[in-house]
Amino acid sequence: MSAYWKANQRRLAPWLFLAPGMLMFAVYVIIPIFQSMWISFYDWDGLGEATWIGTANYVEMTTDPNMRKSFVNNIIWLVLYLLAVPAGLFIAIFLNQTVGGIRLYKSLFFFPFVISQVVVGLIFSWFYAPGFGLFYKVIEYFNGTGIAILADPDLVTYGIIAAGLWPQIAYVMILYLTGLNNVAPDQVEAARLDGAKGWKMLYYVILPQLRPATFIAVVVTVIGALRSFDLVSIMTSGGPFGSSRVLSYYMYETALSEYGYRMGYGAAIAVVLFAIMMVFISGFIWKMWRDETER
Amino acid sequence: MAPFVNAGQFLDVTDVWDGNGLNDSLASAAASMTIDGKKWGVPYTYYQWGIYFNKDAYKAAGVEAPGPEGVDWATFIANCEKFKAAGIDCLTTGTKALWPGAGIFDYMSLRTNGYEWHMDLTAGKIAWTDDSVRAVFAELGKLQPYVTANHAAIDWQDAAALLVQGKAANYVMGNFAVATFKEGGMTNDNLGFMAFPEITPGIPRSEDAPTDTIHIPAGAANPADAKLFLAYVASADAQTKLNAAIGQLPTNKNSTVPQDDPFLVSGFQMLSTAHALSQFFDRDAPAEMAKAGMEGIQQFLVQPEELDNILARLEQVRGQVYK
Questions:
Q1: What ipTM does the predicted assembly reach?
Q2: Closest alpha carbon to B211 in B7, B59, B42
Q3: Residue A43 touches chain B, beta carbons under 8 Å
Q4: In sequence order, what are the beta bridge partners of B6?
Q5: Which of A77, B20, B157, B221 is 20 to 30 Å apart from A92, CA to CA?
Q6: Which residues in chain B touch residue A57, judged by CB atoms under 8 angstroms apart?
Q7: What is the distance between the alpha carbons of residues A42 and A267, in angstroms, rounded to a whole number?
Q8: Burial of residue A295 (number of CB atoms within 10 Å: 0-12, 13-18, 19+)
Q9: Which of A47, A129, A242 sits opposite B4 (nearest CB)?
Q10: CATH number among 3.90.1600.10, 1.10.760.10, 1.10.3720.10, 3.50.50.60, domain A65-294
Q11: What does residue B154 show for φ and ψ, rounded to 5 degrees?
């Protein structure tokens, strides 16, 4: 035993250190993924007997109007959420200067990311609230009648995304602020001597050096958009009449909520969401792997 | 209750009912506690639904406040027109959580086509595209223009605030809302209660009265004592005390209600003379149908022009739910 250990210590030690993490990851992530896939082939109310129904859940999904609505909303989320990247960059560049009290300004801009998503949702619900919300009152002042964003089936998703962008922009801003610290001053100097300034300086000198920050910003934003659950749940519960549903919330609704007794269908939605996420995640991983091997 | 009973999660308590004379003292709830001829729990409380109204709002709009006997449907709608002219919401609700809208629909359904029809509808025996369903929505359509705008974005408590402030006159709600109205400053003097108006003449009056119940899990370690407790909770004395404390109505017919609470007294009177009691839309209909139905009701209250699409979708869900 001891001899074996001595001979292979260097080979075994990394695995021993990895073991607790891998065990947790397997129990809480990998195995549940396959369990969900398995459940998605059943008709099961979570209490009684489960019946094997093959791909019927997936077939039903193709004609389910709620599913289509959730999917469309997810795409809107994905596209609009990416606005956080240029917006965060803009604020980061704006704040990347040395004037008195800049640390205070930076922390104020960062503030929305520190508070919980639930609180963000509540704040924005009150902001939009018909009758007393600030946003409602301002619109009412200029327009005569206020707009209750969260009661309007056409506007509600945009209203929630706006709430989500608030902390997301702050997050991206912080990523870029750290990135800007690492921009080589000599390159900026050299570019300046060559007569570059304004947009050209930004595009040809600064942005290429910020590529790692941009990559991370896009990754966290895409994933944030796809798992948008908290805000939908807090602000509208998917309403009015399902207009603000996204896949993650619809999954919760069908499988786990007060009226959710369809574990199989919920699991099937989870599998679809997982597949969509996998497209992005494998893309990201592939890019990271390529970058590392090329060096 | 049905999903748990069908999944074998509840203990059969028929012997508690038979051994304690509950079939007589809890007669009004007996039917809803029975599945396959067996009893699966005991009810301990319920409460009435109806229209709560702000008498000050009636005064402000120059409308005569209804007495305990209520008003008829035509008068109610005519009053709504007057409230509208006075800038007051005739009927308020907050459907963010969906169920308050279902309360309005339940009464439309019970008053337009009656209890038996409503039970058939929630049991999936009637097509949502049927003309009888359209008749219900036609009546709801008369009320729709007078319901608080933006109700889809607010909770029932927010709507209660509108009633308390006199910005709204009427509210279809359960009796639990009285506590909220009173916390907001209303008193027995300016808060009124009436049964929902009759719509189709001659239909026996039925009411929404959601009942709360106690059950024993199938795998309980000590069923003997659990049954003893159930028998105690079902007794007239225990229900009198329990319900006086929580401000609701006892299900035991030999219990008494506190005479100084006019809402409990009139609720008790209203329910004990009702033709039948429904449990509420989301309890009478299976979960999936209830969810889709409540969304449809909410959508109709926002977009009445979408009725055809709503009914077609509900009919599609009915085809999937009741197999």
A1: 0.81
A2: B42
A3: no
A4: none
A5: A77
A6: none
A7: 9
A8: exposed
A9: A47
A10: 1.10.3720.10
A11: -120, 155
Phi/psi for B277 (5° steps) reads -120, 125
Side-chain half-sphere exposure of B10, counting CA atoms within 13 A:
20
Do residues B61 and B55 touch, judged by C-beta distance below 8 A?
no
Task: Count the helices and strands in chain B (H runs, E runs).
Answer: 17, 10
- Structural domains of chain B in order of their starting residue, each with its CATH number: 49-207+280-321 (3.40.190.10)
Please list the pLDDT of chain B residue by residue as tens digits (323 residues): 777 888 888 999 999 999 888 888 888 778 778 888 899 999 999 899 999 999 999 999 988 888 877 888 999 999 999 999 999 999 999 998 899 999 999 999 999 999 989 989 998 999 999 999 999 999 999 999 999 988 988 899 999 999 999 999 999 999 999 999 999 999 999 999 999 999 999 898 899 989 899 999 998 999 999 999 999 999 999 999 999 888 888 988 888 888 888 898 888 888 888 888 888 998 888 888 999 999 999 999 999 999 999 999 999 989 888 87
DSSP character string of B67-118: -TT---HHHHHHHHHHHHHTT-EEEE---TTSHHHHHHHHHHHHHHH-HHHH
Of A148, A258, A261, the CB nearest to B153: A148
Pick B295's closest partner by Cβ from A45, A241, A258: A241
Cβ–Cβ gap A129/B95 under 8 Å: no
Question: Which residues are B42's β-sheet partners?
Answer: B214
For B165, the enclosing helix (H) or strand (E) is none
Q: How many CB atoms lie within 10 A of CB A50?
A: 15
Tens digits of residue pLDDT in A12-31 = 899 999 999 999 999 999 99
